[in-house]
Amino acid sequence: MTLTEAIEAFRLDLGIRRSLHTVEAYTTALRHFEAFCTEAYQPARQMPVASLSPDMALSFVRWLQANHRVSPTTLDNYVTAINRFYRWLLLEEKASFAAADYARLQERLADIRGRRPPRPLPRLPAEEAVQALVKAAYEVPMPADPNTPQGRRATLRRLRNIALIEALRSSGARVGEIVALRRGDLDYERQAAVVTGKGRKQRRIYFDDRAWAALTHYLRVRQDGATGRSLASLPLFARHDRGAGNQVLPVTTNTVRAAIEELCHLAGLDESITPHLLRHRFATGVLSATHDLAVTQDLLGHASPTTTRIYTRLTAEDTEEAHREAREQGKI
Questions:
Q1: In the chain, where are the structural domains located?
Q2: Quick check: is 174 catalytic?
Q3: For residue 124, which of 299, 291, 282 has the smallest C-alpha distance?
Q4: First to last CA, the chain
Q5: Catalytic residue, candidates 152, 198, 257, 309
């Protein structure tokens, strides 16, 4: 088996349990690995995969740093991809190196990942800007002719955008999770919804009263019962443009970002507010209110508490207050 054939087989196996996004990310890394092997040894389509050694993986990382400067995050992703590929070769008995050699490679790659600079603090939107954005969504005027097809589409776009802003603001969900929601994912008893996050893991997100009211009002005005399709299978947030016609089609993440960008312009904001900035705001607010890292991690759908811990650095007021109280009580 050649290196190119092995990479393709690895990709097929990876696709069984991993998301398309993960497969694409690993593929990009391994295409660079093919280019490196072709340049340093022999064409990947001719190179026997059994000729790979752990040293080649380490040389690949050095080659990347010398010839294709990538960000620390991208380098981490590439290192993970190579690590998983070598592990797959070992498990599939396609490697000529021993398990002990792979274990040493893991240690070296882990050391490389550990050298990355600290992650920068997420930028938080000013609270006044967030409130101005929400206000702008509500102040979009109703169409002059709401009973025409064009007027109805404009009405539904306005209500949808209000519901989108409120849902992102109050739930902390990723924009990709929001656009993937179906009506059947709603939990009316809890004012919540079940989303499928990274790694296909499901969790429940919650909406406050204002967001829930905006969302349910939007759905009532849509009158989806006329489509003849099961309501549960219909997208929660739908397209309302001429191209969609009478079909109930889901919005894309680009649609959401464009809608928010337009509302930022209408609000006269100097800096745009993105869906991910609303997620940062949510995370910081929850952690500041609860001081509970585990709860915040669950609400955000983070696989590792390490990812969530970055938000602890954003609550300087809380840590300062805790230190003051400890001093006054003679605990430190």
A1: 3-113, 127-318
A2: yes
A3: 282
A4: 64
A5: 198
Catalytic residue, chosen from 87, 182, 257, 276, is 276
Query: Is 302 considered catalytic here?
Result: yes
Element (H, E) at 4: helix 3-17
Sites in the chain below the pLDDT cut of 70: 114-122, 226-228, 306, 312-332
d(C-alpha 8, C-alpha 189), whole Å = 46
Residue with tokens 């792979």: 102
How confident is the model at residue 116, as a pLDDT? 55
- Active-site entry in 160, 222, 279, 280: 279
How far apart are alpha carbons 2 and 5 in whole angstroms? 5
Q: State the Cα–Cα distance between residues 30 and 65, nearest whole angstrom.
A: 15
Quote the pLDDT of residue 25: 86
Which residue is catalytic, options 174, 183, 222, 280? 174
Burial of 58 (0-12, 13-18, 19+ CB in 10 A): middle
Q: Which amino acid is at 330?
A: G
Q: Active site includes 276?
A: yes
CATH homologous superfamily of 3-113 equals Tyrosine recombinase, N-terminal domain (1.10.150.130)
- Reference 104, options 117, 90, 94, 118; nearest CA is 90
- Quickly tell me which residue has 């990382």 as its tokens: 61
pLDDT of 226 reads 64
- What fold characterizes domain 127-318? hpI Integrase; Chain A (1.10.443)
Contact 37, 3 (CB under 8 A): yes
For 111, the token pair is 């050391």
Candidate list 157, 158, 183, 302, residue with the active-site label:
302
Closest CA relative to residue 196, chosen from 180, 214, 216, 219: 180
Residue pointed to by tokens 């790659």: 109
- Three-class DSSP category at 254: helix
Q: How far is CA 171 from the centre of its chain?
A: 14
